[in-house]
Amino acid sequence: MKDDFTHVAQLYHELEDNLTFMKALDFAVRIVNLYKYLKDEKEETVMSGQVLRSGTSIGANISEALGAESKDDFIH
Predict the structure, then answer these.
(1) I want to staple 38 with a disulfide (CB 3.0 to 4.6 A). Which of 18, 48, 56, 68 is the partner?
(2) Number of neighbours of residue 57 by Cβ within 10 angstroms
(3) Is-contact 56 29, C-beta < 8 A?
(4) Please, which residues have CB within 8 angstroms of residue 56's CB and are 6 or more apart in sequence?
(5) Which residues form the domain of 35?
(6) What is the percent of the chain where pLDDT is above 70?
(7) Domain count within the chain
(8) Residue 27 — pLDDT band, cuts 50, 70, 90?
(9) Contact assessment for residue 64 and residue 21, using Cβ atoms and an 8 Å cutoff
């Protein structure tokens, strides 16, 4: 269990030091605000949901790539 926490802490520090991830995080915050605007002010539900899913997945993709253990991890 302690090893899992150590691994997560190490990954967090790697992400925090990664400029690409930090830009993706800032972008995701802007996307969430856009989503709220589209949904609440413009009453757009379909497009706002797609914008939210696509705009916030960037950080997840970056963190998954950084957490890969080998080149084979990129294949599946």
Answers:
(1) 48
(2) 14
(3) no
(4) 28, 31, 32
(5) 2-74
(6) 88
(7) 1
(8) very high
(9) no
Question: Would you call 24 exposed, middle or buried from its count of C-beta atoms within 10 A (0-12, 13-18, 19+)?
Answer: buried
The CATH code of the domain that includes 56 is 1.20.1440.60
- Residues 17/9, Cβ–Cβ less than 8 Å: no
User: Distance (Å, rounded) from C-alpha 35 to C-alpha 75?
Assistant: 32
Helices marked H in 17-66 — which ranges?
19-40, 46-66
Tokens standing for 32? 């969430």
Indicate the pTM of the whole model: 0.73
pLDDT band at 12 (very low <50, low <70, confident <90, very high): confident
- The whole-angstrom distance between residue 34's C-alpha and the CA centroid of its chain comes to 16
Dist. CA 59–CA 23, nearest whole Å: 9
